[in-house]
Amino acid sequence: MSEFARVCVDAMGGDNAPAEIVKGTVDALNESDKIKVWLVGQQAAIKNELSKYTYPEDRLVIVNAEEVIDPNEPPVMAIRKKKDSSIVKGLELTKDGTVDAFVSAGSSGAILVGGQVIVGRIKGVERPPLAPLIPNVNGVSLLIDCGANVDARATHLVQFAKMGSIYMEHIVGVKNPRVAIVNIGAEEEKGNALVKETYPLLKNCPDINFIGSIEARDIPKGDADVIVCEAFVGNVILKMYEGVADALVTVIKKGLMSTLKSKIGALLVKPTLKKTLKGFSLEDYGGAPLLGLNGLVIKTHGSSKSVEIKNSILQVIPFKEQDISGKISSNLSQTD
Amino acid sequence: MSEFARVCVDAMGGDNAPAEIVKGTVDALNESDKIKVWLVGQQAAIKNELSKYTYPEDRLVIVNAEEVIDPNEPPVMAIRKKKDSSIVKGLELTKDGTVDAFVSAGSSGAILVGGQVIVGRIKGVERPPLAPLIPNVNGVSLLIDCGANVDARATHLVQFAKMGSIYMEHIVGVKNPRVAIVNIGAEEEKGNALVKETYPLLKNCPDINFIGSIEARDIPKGDADVIVCEAFVGNVILKMYEGVADALVTVIKKGLMSTLKSKIGALLVKPTLKKTLKGFSLEDYGGAPLLGLNGLVIKTHGSSKSVEIKNSILQVIPFKEQDISGKISSNLSQTD
């Protein structure tokens, strides 16, 4: 096994590619000597960006891929047709073990579909969940699943709980992470059919620290570390985070400009306010891992700047050192 | 038909009963002479509160009910057993036509169950949805359904869309309200099984102005007037609104206290900030109507203060004048 955490980075993915992606890669390489990066994408564009920086050249490989998958392309078709795209090539390097992980800010659909089809699931894993870290007033929680496969079954949610617990414990460093299921009330008898079926399974699962239901209102308070839900619900939660926060910032800004007194006040509070809101933004926690695959796939925001790319790359170090895939494999194969 | 909008108000419901409930009732009576109120609850407590105010006594009736349903009681049992409770008596007055509407800040479960069991559905209505108004950056939208009956069918959602459109047009005054279905992407082929089944039904429904899918992120922006979803999802959306807003206010306050400069700024921005956040709070829009019943049932927040009670009572005037129940009845019976 290589001593490096070997990461393939999609140089062409996201709104700010390739400039911010290359910058994030260079920053990661300069920050940690445990990292080796394969930058995949249009070679000329990558080289052009790289020429702006100094970096350890022996830990950077360029892999040429001429095609780019657009976020609006139907994902299944894109994965099938664009064999010379940065996403397909990156996922293939993960599949064949050249790298430990693939990081991309590109098409969510293509990454999720390609992750399953090309990289493949760990034996025993029924569905690979997408699990972003979301901020709360005290730190972060893992929201699992926000992926593309909706209408999950109860057994899927139990696996999400286990994989999420392993991730929070060994990557984020939360001891005995509290697992809760998203519900419309705190009582065990509440919920839709899926939640009612899942609840007793989680309650009787010896591998996790299940604390019961969590109402959506309590998620931003940080009342649980691993927040288990079906992907449609997870998507709504994630996007409400963004939407409500953005709307509040809009109305607050408008409000602050409404009187002379508050305008002066606004000047004084602006730096702190900006810092505070940044700490509560979704974008600073690195990308969301797609768990349960034969290799780590990390999806970052389409709007990723270099810092998110850098953080996502660095996330691969503990993922490899802690052998998360091995832990998921042995944990899920025990009981399934 | 009585010339008054006749409203029964649950004097015993919510955290601030009976004081704030009685105050809200008095305020409504003093604000509009189109209102007549039946205050139901423990007579002695009601009279005690009423003694603090002057109000038009000829438009206030006290109905004694000795029992109180606790929010933690199992609702079906509570409705069945506590015949002398304010909720059961209030719903019975609505059922028998003594009043046009029942307003309560009490047990959501009991009100939702009792609304269906005691008041009963309008012929043709398959499920009565709970439909709160939620703030957005430009005004309000109607979120339908946030009720107790999860796992809805596609035909239910179509009825929600129709009822919500009638409500937004005739009560809130939005011409040709834009109807959207909550989804995890904008494209027609996205979604879970329920959304995929519902989408074409809404698209082909001639009575509504269907604009397609809405992602949760765009709800607070005000991109639709009637936001259709299944109750579990609606509950998550509603509670994320509260949760994210509360969490943001917490971190902002903490942030503002972190430096001397921002502390001074905070003093200057505080009044404006408070006003702005109040305008974006869920509690100032009166209660949520439970639509599709033989009479209007309005559920207000458990934490309702007098202003929410007053607004909920006044809401009954247009509901009666516009004959919303009649409109729902003729619209839904046409096509079902």
Explain what you see:
2 copies of one chain form a homodimer. Chain A has 12 helices and 11 strands. Chain A has helices at residues 19-31, 43-50, 75-81, 86-95, 108-119, 154-172, 193-203, 231-256, 260-279, 306-314, 316-321, 324-335; strands at 5-10, 35-41, 60-64, 101-104, 133-135, 140-144, 178-183, 209-215, 226-228, 288-290, 296-299. The radius of gyration of chain A is 20 Å and the shape is globular. Chains A and B meet through helix 8 and helix 9 of A and helix 8 and helix 9 of B.
In short:
The structure is a homodimer of 336-residue chains. Chain A is of the alpha/beta class and 336 residues long.
Please supply descriptive tags for the structure shown above.
alpha/beta, 336 residues, six-stranded mixed β-sheet, homodimer
